[in-house]
Design a protein that fits this description.
Elements lengths: L1 H17 L3 E2 L10 E2 L2 E2 L6 E5 L3 E6 L5 E7 L4 E4 L1 E3 L5 E5 L2 E4 L4 E4 L3 H12 L4 E2 L24 H7 L4 E2 L16 E2 L4
Antiparallel strand pairs: 1-12, 2-3, 4-7, 4-11, 5-6, 5-10, 8-9, 9-10, 13-14
C-alpha cells in the first residue's frame, strides 16, 4: 500500500516538475512603473523628496508627534494620504509621516505616469519561470546486474547517471551531500 502511494506521489511530483508555471496578476507583473528612485504603487497620491535632513514622525493618539528617525537628504517616500494637522503631514505608510516644510518637496504623479500604472495593472506581463529539470528516471528503478552499493558517485553514475533516491537499494546517505533524499544527482 505504501509503495503504491509513494509511486503515485512521485509521479505527480515528476509531472509537476515538467510543467511551466505562469503567474498572472499585478503583483507578479514585471511592468514596474518607476518614478524617480521609487516604484509608483496603486493608492499612492504623490511622493516627497527630502531636500535636507528632517524627521520621520508618528502621530500619537493624543495628537502629538514623536520622532521615528531622522531622514537624509535625497531619500524619497511614497505618499498615501495628507493630514492638515501640525501644518500638514504627508502619510508615507506604516503610520509614519513627514511634516510639510521647506525641507521636503511634494509632487503628484503626472497623467502619463498614472496611465502607465493603470496599463501595468490591467495588462500585466506574465512572469514565466523556467521548468525545473526533473531528476530523470523514477530514482527507484533497479538495473539488473548492478551492484547494490558503490564506493563513490562516479561508480554509481555508471549504472544510474541521474542518481538514486532514498529507498533505492543503491542509495547511501554518504552519497547524498545536500541531504535531499537523492544520492549522486547530476546537479
Amino acid at each position: 500500500m505504501f509503495n503504491k502511494l509513494f509511486k503515485v506521489i512521485l509521479l505527480i511530483v515528476l509531472a509537476l516538475s515538467f510543467s511551466t508555471i505562469t503567474i498572472f496578476g499585478a503583483e507578479a507583473s514585471t511592468n514596474k512603473v518607476m518614478w524617480g528612485k521609487t516604484e509608483l504603487k496603486l493608492g499612492q497620491i504623490g511622493k516627497v523628496t527630502i531636500l535636507s535632513k528632517t524627521e520621520l514622525v508618528k502621530l500619537e493618539s493624543d495628537g502629538s508627534l514623536s520622532t521615528v528617525r531622522t531622514i537624509k537628504k535625497g531619500e524619497e517616500f511614497r505618499v498615501y494620504n495628507f493630514k492638515s494637522q501640525h501644518g500638514g503631514l504627508y502619510g508615507v505608510g506604516g503610520g509614519s509621516y513627514v511634516k510639510k516644510s521647506d525641507k521636503v518637496k511634494y509632487e503628484t504623479p503626472s497623467k502619463s505616469k498614472l496611465a502607465q500604472l493603470e496599463e501595468a495593472i490591467n495588462n500585466p506581463t506574465p512572469v514565466v519561470t523556467a521548468p525545473s529539470t526533473p531528476k530523470v528516471e523514477a530514482g527507484l528503478e533497479v538495473i539488473k546486474g548492478a551492484p547494490s552499493s558503490f564506493k563513490n558517485c562516479t561508480a554509481l553514475k555508471q549504472y544510474y547517471p541521474n542518481g538514486v533516491m532514498r529507498g533505492h537499494p543503491a542509495y547511501a546517505s554518504k552519497h547524498d551531500r545536500d541531504k535531499d533524499g537523492w544520492a549522486c544527482e547530476p546537479y
